[in-house]
Automatic annotation (TrEMBL):
UniProt xrefs under CDD domains: fer2
Domain of life: Bacteria
Taxonomic source organism: Pasteurella oralis
Name assigned to this protein: Class I ribonucleotide reductase maintenance protein YfaE
Pfam families in UniProt: Fer2
Start and end residues of each 2Fe-2S ferredoxin-type domain: 1-82
Listed PROSITE patterns: 2FE2S_FER_1 (PS00197), 2FE2S_FER_2 (PS51085)
Coiled coil: none
Amino acid sequence: MKIHLIHSQITLEYDNQLSLLSHLENNGIFHEYQCRSGYCGSCRVKIRKGKVSYKEPPLAFIQPNEILLCCCQVEEDLEIEM
């Protein structure tokens, strides 16, 4: 799958082996986070295209156009506002 970061115009390949947050960090892209488990919501970003799911519903409040980088499972190519 492809993850396109709109603001930085970067596109990365992604395979759901690591969290999306960890994958971004491994590629030199750092984003705010606190808990890494869906509790705090610090890693929320807006999604423009694509679909994610969650193994466990996150406790952090998110809008329909937001995802949590730390705990989402990517279902299809994404465009996110980063």
